[in-house]
Amino acid sequence: MTPPDRFSAADDPWIDVRDQHGYHRTGLRGLILDAHTIEDLAVAAAPAASAILRIATVLAARITGLDDPELNADTWNRHRSELLGRTDGFDTDAVNTYFAKYSFDVFDPLRPWMQDPRLREQCAIPSGINTLVFGRPAGNNLAWLSPHHDQAAMPLPTGEALQHLLIHHYYGASGGCTSRTAGTLTCPRAAAGPLRGTVSFHPLGRTLYETLLAGIPKFTADEQSEPDHCPWEEPQLPDPQAPLPPATWPGRRLTGMNRHSVLLVPGDDASTVTNAYLTWSTQQPRLAVTDPYLVVRTGTGRPPQARPRRADADRAWWRELDSLVLAPDEQHATRRPEVFDTLNDLPPPVRKSLRVRVHGFDQDTKTIQRRWYTAITPPLLAWSQEHDPARANRISECCTAAESTASRLTFLTNQAWKDTCHAAPSSKDPSWTATARSLYWQQAEAAFWHLLDTDTPARITFADTAARALRTATASARFRHRAAARAIATAVDALYTRPPPPAHARTLMPTAIEYRRHYTGFTAKVEKACTDPKARRTLRQGRGRPVDDCNGMHRFLSVLTHGYGQRRVHYTVASLIAHVDPLDAVRAAHATSTEQPTTPAATNPDPAPDLDPYSPATWRKRPNLGATLAHAVRTADFNETRTDELLAVLVRLSENQLHRRLPSLTGRLIDADLTPDWPVLLDDLAQRDHDRGRVATRWQDAFYRTLYLTSKETP
Fold first, then answer.
1. Cα separations (Å) of 547 from 69, 542, 561, 686?
2. What would the pLDDT profile of 188-231 be if each residue is shown by its tens digit?
3. d(CA 116, CA 470)
4. I want to staple 267 with a disulfide (CB 3.0 to 4.6 A). Which of 243, 274, 281, 657 is the partner?
5. CB atoms within 10 A of CB 501
6. Alpha-helical regions (H) of 266-388
7. Where are the domains of the chain?
8. Does the bond joining 250 to the residue before it have cis omega, within 30 degrees of 0?
9. Bridge partners, 272 (sequence order)
10. Does the structural domain 512-713 have CATH classification 3.40.190.10?
11. What digits encode the pLDDT tens for the residues 141-169?
12. How far apart are CA 316 and CA 308, in angstroms?
């Protein structure tokens, strides 16, 4: 039993959870051990729940070995899928071994959990318990309707104090704080927490066990040279004056980016906290690291700056739906949370039931706390671009129409107010605008869900919604003032008029057929460019290299790839095309005009003239990489066993490794007079980034069917 003068974050209950029997509290150890029976967190404060999810996700990665940066993508995904197939949760011995290695004592005199014991000497006075607790007035702030004030500060249960401690670590305010003297540095100001004013999107499984495993972000760097530590795993306390260590994955990235230092002062026993020190932890510049649970908006500056989506308590979650279902693409102004990039690799039962938990804290960038909020989405991975491009395109269209109509409504309502009152321009919206906008968004959600199942133009439907909202908001004014009636009628008519699109407006995502048409045109233009020896030499230099190392190729490819994403894939295929001697293509074209074609027609028959060459049925009849390798075995004396083994390796390689291996392979094929079908290869490589298993199956099916079925049919 825990002594009364100790409180363990691992073993004492302080985290509210929900299971099939109801609600109860547990510690971090119980949270992990019982994760397979816990349905979800039940923490009342959304920012505290968001912080606990990040900490628990790192614990899950540590205990399962999914924090190993040496694992390649396939091994990592396979290991996670095996873990998700278990019904008994995390390994009990591994959990207990991990918690035995580190101190989770909240009031440990040397290493209190997530705190800095040096604040007793480095701060002249404590900050006060009211400063720690979000929602309590502190210092010179007026109490108004609150019973709390600094003259009669009420102690706080330790479990609740821990939650507020985590909120400060992640969402802490910037500006004045308790002065701290560390060495020669004295400062009374702190920077904002890493998540201040943001909204987080966490994958939500059927149990907390699934939630934590699905929420582990993948390792995206090439290597990690320094060891990764969480704050409680650090061998010694951090030096406040030293440069910040790299944001290693996943520990520091999810738990060690805080800008505040906190120290809790216990009461007569460890069950309550009576005071606290709250000050800065570092004055070093912030690291350029993006949290993997945030929607990121890409700015238009030079260079572009990625900024997280700000939390807005008045903004419904469905307005972010297009950002969640669209795959990453430089064409779009927003990027979905990084953790979503691996969700399509989850086992189908988990993937189909996966929802999204939304945690937001509406704050300004300084000290004002407005409101925190939470929401749960329905299962939406089936709507993602990887699984249903048409649905994702419709969602994007409807979200864009809803936002543009809201902006149009605001502008027109402001104009109607000015025309009615003959008012001078003002930076503040009049009362009509706020009311009309509120009514519009209340009705827009129902219109949005209805539009997803119909072909009705989204712009017209949202214009109808905006017109109803505007008429309702101005009903009394239209009755009293003739000028108001005329101005509102003009505004309603203008709602149905399509405004000129702004320069930064989002364009709709191309369809699969448009992608294939683009791939065909792209490869044709690259082949034409390669007739210039200088251009061909430049394009050949990009073989196997990342886009950032292909500076000379931008002149030829930047415009051709704009709006279609997957630049690495385009650059790789362009460099492969440049390996082919264009004179060989001219000779081949001349030969085909005078001789019979030698390509096996039984394997890849030409599409019928009345079929769309870019339709799925016709496109899949063209030879992919697997079929080309099979032809190499049959006609170019490639060793069958070695080619089979080579293909088995290729389908398992990571994207970076595959792009490095392709030049040598395609070089051998070209030397054997077997040129790959470049548009099909480009299409497969682009799809492989988010659907590796399906592309691997197509390549292997084509290899074996071309090799064996065609061999049996050949007399």
1. 23, 8, 12, 15
2. 999 999 999 999 999 999 999 999 999 999 887 767 888 999 99
3. 55
4. 274
5. 10
6. 321-325, 348-353
7. 15-280, 389-509, 512-713
8. yes
9. 157
10. no
11. 655 556 666 667 789 999 999 999 999 99
12. 17
